[in-house]
What we know:
Layout: E1 7-10, E2 17-20, E3 38-42, E4 60-62, E5 69-71
Antiparallel strand pairs: 1-2, 1-3, 4-5
Amino acid sequence: MSTAQRYRLRNPASGREIVLEAEPGEIYVDRDSGAPMEVVGKLLPLAPSASKLPWAVENLRFCTWCDQLAQKDLNDCPTCGRRMGPLGA
């Protein structure tokens, strides 16, 4: 289970973005330009979470029991707690 929160950071000058587990109070710089990166937002799911996949259409599936969205890398539904069927079934 991941306990660190992941953030999306952006270089305001170039628009280059990265996703990482950022620590409060730390300054992160773009490795290409050396410019400071700014936090754009938190990635869902929020920490702590059993999944490392961000909430995006290509990473989600519907639970076969409660029809709620869950990440593809989870075996148990985070909403109802029941075992989901295999992918592609």
